[in-house]
Design brief:
alpha+beta, globular, two-stranded antiparallel ribbon, 220 residues
Amino acid sequence: MGKDRNNTFMDFAVTMRFDINNNVSKQKDSKEAKERTKIYENYQLYINLSVLPLLHRVFIEGIKNGKITHQSLIQFFYNHTWLGQEFTDYDTGGDLIKYRWISVIAPSIHEYFIQTESALKSNNPFTNYIMPIDSLTLKFEGVLREFATILKVSTTVAGKGNVLREKYIEELLAEKEVQKYFDENDLLFFNYLFVAKDGMNLRNNIAHSFLRILISRKVR
């Protein structure tokens, strides 16, 4: 009976969840799963009440005053991060190709500024960020895979039928060598944003076209 006293009603409750298509699933979560869900719920409040308003103010005021432009932001990434580093690879024909990751994500950054600047200059203060969100979410996986490759971490794993497949984002983030370069807050943010079912789960929702509702935000 001593152990039972530590149990609460929630330890015996059955969780009912609605997926993005309003399908209902019932399951009796483990204590660890419930704790994880609680963490993501609190994290979502923190994002909505603190982080997003701060970023909104920084970028909107920065764009209004000409302090931040898509050129200056891209130039910063080019000069001060490995995204500006040149990489080489070979195409299917065996020809050498050269690329920089900043060139891959630059169109998404440009589109964000186009949407925001257009809203600030017009009578319609709302923006549509579907294109930059879709693009940056999927490109994040490629950037993370490249980062793991730089660290000499294998980005493939044996799948069904012992056939090699590319590791998923959560598998790459779970690699100990990759985790050395991120703190606990970084990993929580990445998992919450891209893959956690109790978070935004953008990678899954975008890949399967579940985000069918207009994504807009007032910029004034």
